[in-house]
Amino acid sequence: MTATPISSKLPRVGTTIFTVMSRLANECGAINLSQGFPDFDPPARLVDLVAMHMRSGHNQYAPMAGWPALCEAIAGKVRDLHGRAVSATEEVTVTSGGTEALFCAIQAVVRPGDEVILLEPAYDSYEPAVELAGGFAVRVPLQSPSFSVDWDRVAAAITSRTRLLIVNSPHNPSGAVWSRDDIDALERILARTGAFVLSDEVYEHMVFDGRAHASVLGRDSLAARSFVVSSFGKTYHATGWKVGYCVAPAALSAEFRKVHQFVQFAVATPIQAGIADYLVECPAHHLELPAFYQDKRDHFCRLLAQTPLRFEPSAGTYFQLADFSAVSDLSDVDFAQWLTRQVGVAAIPVSVFSTHASTARVVRFCFAKNESTLEAAGRRLRRLGR
Ligand SMILES: Cc1ncc(COP(=O)(O)O)c(C=O)c1O
């Protein structure tokens, strides 16, 4: 007897747009500004430290919750940045990238029938994880064109079944960055609920023009109900290493770890050990990241200004949105394909982050690239004006 044909648990999920666009970019020889990854290396000292740990025998399983020195260094960073004392042993868990942390947090708290509020456009990994847990995503659109949160709409979406709110600042894909007012509003609307928060802060060190990253870790009542996720892949230009972490109160971390230990168990030992050393040796790296990426944003925006694409400089992340309505009537999905094939620059259509129908003609570019790559993309994009 053959196995029963599989009935998909995620029937609406296909290959992610990031894989699709990167593949198309490779096929067409296009400059790939679609998927979010740097085309430059991690700091040389960090690579040396990881290699040193490999050579000195740190090659077996790390402790399930994380390499102790790394958990200590993360707790130190949380204290320095947000003034919050967290327990390195009970409240910090090192994960296989931000993605695994998001998945484990969702599986830890969402039960069949629970509602989970997402603000859309939303990063694509949230909803499938909610569905696998048996929950339902309730999508609240961000306001156009600023991508700010309409807190009245969020408040109206909360019901007795709301189990979790997933928030993301700095925001992928828009680059919008929350202010303290947003944190106030989140605190206010959750005050009379038992809902948890999953705060995706993987771009925490990419905020521009003097803005400060407003973390839920800066507020007692929010920190007490939150899983806060970050990514060393973003911070250290090493997305392929897939190392991130989750900070949550001890009771939440205990449930989180019950999932983590059977999804991943433990994260690559020499990489954790190398990052631990580097965090202590070179804290300037993450402190200097806003200026580093602001320079890249400014450079890319100067190039975009020479094209018919319209844009507001991004407030955070390493993404820049551009409105192409002066150039084409195509949908954003078709335009992104056309741009890749005909102009030789790959971008991500923004509508794929939403389920609500949108006619906005906006694509997302990643500017985490060397100057020469941005220049080459700029030269090609100037052809749009001809
Ligand atoms: C908003 C957001 N969250 C999470 C992730 C995943 O991070 P990681 O690569 O560390 O798994 C990404 C990566 O692109 C992201 O953009």
Description:
The chain has 15 helices and twelve strands. It has a seven-stranded mixed beta sheet with strand order 2-8-7-6-5-3-4, sandwiched between helices. A three-stranded antiparallel beta sheet has the order 9-12-11. A two-stranded parallel ribbon has the order 1-10. It is globular and about 60 Å long. The model has no long low-confidence stretch (mean pLDDT 96). It has 386 residues and is α/β, with parallel strands linked by helices. The longest helix has 16 residues, at 289-304. Pyridoxal-5'-phosphate binds at residues 36, 97-99, 123, 168, 172, 200, 202, 231, 233, 239, 242, 244.
Keywords:
alpha/beta, 15 helices, 386 residues, single chain, binds pyridoxal-5'-phosphate, seven-stranded mixed beta sheet
The overall pLDDT average reads: 96
Low-confidence stretches: none
How far apart the termini lie comes to 63 Å
Shape: globular
Bound molecules: pyridoxal-5'-phosphate
* Spatial strand arrangement across the major sheet: 2-8-7-6-5-3-4
Record field, number of beta strands: 12
Radius of gyration: 21 Å
| Order of helix and strand elements from N to C terminus | HEHHEHEHEHEHEHEHEHHHHEHEEEH
Q: What class would the helix/strand composition place it in? A: alpha/beta
Q: Fraction of residues in helices?
A: 40-55%
Major beta-sheet overview = 7 strands, mixed
Total helix count?
A: 15
How large a portion of the residues is in β-strands, by DSSP E? 5-15%
